[in-house]
Write a structure and sequence with these properties.
By secondary structure, this protein is of the alpha+beta class. 38% of the residues lie in helices and 15% in strands. Strands 1, 2, 3, 4, 5, 6, 7, 14 and 15 form a nine-stranded antiparallel β-sheet that branches. A two-stranded antiparallel sheet has the order 8-9.
Amino acid sequence: MELDPSHRRIGLPPDPSNFWNNMPDFSLSDPITTRDPLIAWLESGCKPKAQWRVGTEHEKFGFNKRDLRPIPYEGPSGVRAVLEGMAERFGWQQVLEEGLPIALTKGDAAITLEPGGQLELAGAPVDSIHHTQEEINSHLGELGVVCQGLDIAFLGVGVQPKSTYEEIPWMPKGRYRVMREYLPKKGRLSLEMMTRTATVQANMDFSDERDMGEKFRLAMALQPLVTALFANSPLTNGQPNGFLSWRAEIWRFTDPDRCGWLPFVFEENMGFEAYADYALAAPMLFCYRGGQYQDAGGVPFGEFLAGRLPALPGERPTLTDWTLHLSTLFPDVRLKSYLEFRGADAGNSATLCALPAFWKGLLYHGDSMGAAWELVSGWSLLEREEIHRMVPKLGLRTPVPGGMTLREVARQVLKYARAGLNMHNRRNADGCDEAVFLQTLEETAESGVTPAERLLEAFHGRWQGQVDPIFREEEFDSFLAQCS
């Protein structure tokens, strides 16, 4: 896990010094001329099983409670007021860009801003999902205190359901200005991704290259299942959009150079070198010099390594440039010095811990991981591609090889995840082990009804074709899991 949240996901150049254990005499500012240090940086995340942790990130949409509009950056009820209120009342440290607060840090956690004002909690790495829930409850409690005085609240869904793209304000972060110009050249829904989507993400550790590769492979195979279980974005511009996870469909049309699923992960030589080669071939969005983000012109990072980046003639990259570049790649599973699992729609506070519980149960217990892989290992690359294409619209009804649907796969995989969490036997004060956080997913798999389908039922039923009630019913609050 990244232990320096001030450089983790807030648009500043990352600092890998906490991880550079393999080459202690290597200066972080030294120019790099070969790919060996780049590969070694990825490998530096390896750690013994006793040190494995789980990190959780979630995003949410702010809205004005009077008119349900997205909150701007400035103003008495804006994002800046939220950040400054959190810093003043609860001891968070402000991170400034051009004199403006664009993030907060406290300990190993960070609060960051997405392009359309989505507020993200990048939680600390912890050893128990119970600790994750405590962290989320503390965050939402603090946020609730600040927001009460501003008459704003936050919504937990995968896509902004009411406001049009034109009505969403942009946040004043330098990297977003570059992305706003570059990404529309690559994908017709890229600006929708930036301003109107929200996710929940889990971050996990690995022990060595083989362990990393096996986890990466299984997670990539199961990303469509995660998309289906967490599908929660069927409404856009106040109307059904024809998808269960419009967020997932948006990502399919954002930038094929840096998004989506990675077929090479299923090859036998999958390892740190293979991922480094993928990243070296990926076009750069920007570089960071003199406190400013500079457009890198879409030149592959490999050209920078060879000293051929037009934006910085003759310069060679440093590890800081490498880690910044890695943060601009957005595949369904992403490798840094840990693994990030990115395929889920955001939900309300009752569901946030389900994702890290799912992945911990599978990936931190060898038998569960092996059983899950056996279930999906026989699918071909063409079959996996088709599943990825269909799942945003069909959810758990997506057909998979063997005459099954993702619903049947979900029921089996969740049993393996529960068994893994049971074996960890980490209990809270009420005696619940971490499997309690799987209950919402188990109910979804058993019924076959995703969160998106429940929203559509409400829209066509008790909401009488109006989207406004979603802001009341899916508003964030604290949630304490109970033993069943």
